[in-house]
Known about the structure:
This protein has about 230 residues and is an alpha/beta fold. The chain contains 6 helices and 11 strands.
Amino acid sequence: MKVISSWSGGKDSCLACYNAMQDGLDVSYLMNMAVNGRSHGLDMKLVSAQSQSIGIPLMQRVVTWNTYEEEFKNAVDELIRDLRSRSSEGNALGLKKKCVNGMVFGDIDLQEHRGWVENICAELGVKAFLPLWKRDRIEILNEFISAGFEAVVVCVRSDVLDREWLGRVVNEEFVKDLSHTGIDLCGEFGEYHTFVVDGPIFKKKIKILKSSEVERDGKWFLDVLDYEIK
Length: 230
């Protein structure tokens, strides 16, 4: 079964994609919606670097909150048509038919988000897969870490976390320290965002070489200025 994985560049969408692969789903595309040219504060080229490192093609769209839903549906529809077109070509050559059947999302328990993605997928005629849905926060983080993924904190809400959290690696010590803050451990309410640089689905690691800290719109961001893939 071919699927498209909704991809923010962070730990939850990455783990959901990984879980989908473990369940036998064929992730054919990553899809990233960059609001005003950034995904969770990340430059679009960094998300593109993840696609390159993983080896799965990426569809990116620059959107605003007003155009998000329309552009989301247009992007998915474009990918579905592309995959089905290639499947038809394969059938003509006597190859096994493979059409896109669903989308993978990293949502955990925000019912509003789940309702939205299920409605959109229903409109597009595909199934919504949410591998992390209603799972325990600690369980999610422990699986992410034990599987061998590496992610760094690239954004924090300044009203709940200090700028010192920027650049921290998501590991056992991070989870322990975060548990004392009282915030959602997975940052489900936007308390923090991460950028995955390595892991079992990566063929090459992304190494951050230079960065700076920037404050805007009530958040602290780790602005990645230079990186390498190796």
